[in-house]
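Subgroup meeting minutes
Present: P.N., E.W., G.H.
Scribe: E.W.

1. P.N. recapped why we're keeping a running log of single-chain structure predictions: easier to compare across weeks, and new members can see raw inputs and outputs side by side.
2. G.H. added today's entry (424 aa).
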Amino acid sequence: MTDSSDTGLLSPVWSHLTTAVITKGKGIYLYDKDGNKYIDFTCGIAVTNTGHCHPKIVRAIKEQAEQLIFGQINCVVNDRAIELSHTLKAVMPDGIDRFFFSNSGAEAVEGAVKLAKAATGKTNIIAFEGGFHGRTALTMALTGSKTIYRAGFQPLPPGIFFAPFPYAYYYGWDEDTTVHFCIKELKRILKSVTAPGETAAVIIEPILGEGGYVPAPDRFLRELRDICDENGILMILDEIQSGFGRAGEWLAHTVSGVKADIVTMAKGMASGMPVSCIASGGELMARWETGSHGGTYGGGNAVALAAASATINVMKEENLIENAREMGAYLVRRLKELQGKYPIMGDVRGRGLMVGVELRKDGEPAPGETADIIAKCKDKKLLLLSCGTFGSVIRWIPPLIVTKGQVDDALNIFEDVLHSKGEL
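Output recorded in log:
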């Protein structure tokens, strides 16, 4: 019998927060093979928004597996794909009413770029510094959060140009100054390296994920939308990490009043089952030539599609978006209280339950301290992740079912670690 603790046959390309071998998940908790219980504030990197093994999701998976596991969408149209398209439309902004399903976030981004190029007949894409869009060749080329995701894999696909993201804390400016600078630089890029006539789309995360959990100011998104409209450029909103209630809305960008041309979604969409989605309006999607894009499993995995519909229904029935807003506000308030006691906490920011704490020491990013704090929290059975270009941001991404008491449990561990390190 194989020893479940033997990880020697797994590829070493995977990094691991912990080498604990997990055998069970329930709610916000994970359990390893030795029976240890962990508070999971990684949420599978913002995937298990409804918690681990939510009973209604489990039931939907079981029931669907007994009826139809796979119906390849080029051969047949399985009813779960139709069901999910209607379930999604009900929670999408007006005008987003056509859906292409695939398996991963990177697949969705690649498809979104193909759609933008097909619809406009243009070749170039503008991405933003700090953004993360995946690890395939094209999505690596679009990613500017860390060199680890790109180093050694050049040359990457051409025709991609980077604009500065309005990261006010990094620049050391106020928000208005930062937005003004970034908009000015974007306009310069359209004059200097990629003309509007060859620029198909801009792609942006409304809240940087791997780049540091930095929300884009509403004013910036609105001015970006204006620039796109003035220049015939499509706007792709990458909601893979920030969507599905994570930021306290179905889609994070909607609070700015901006309308996306194309939206990509994944992660929290199906409570851990592999589903992603490209969404746009019907007129735009109609410009994508039939047969020019596809995939064996996208739209065919009826079990995963059923889990996605069940996830949306659970989020509605249990008011998880409202809970994300309420618990997120409470988490930010408590973290800011701690910030007053522990100067290493340079910045606390985020929306909903997508919250980042950026650590600085002597005015510089503090990746070593960040890693040490996360390791010590892990020893106390609290799982947290880092992010940011310098690895100096601790991200707080609990399941959207989290309670105030559970937030307090996590914060108590976090403060104990800060205090033990002498970070007063």
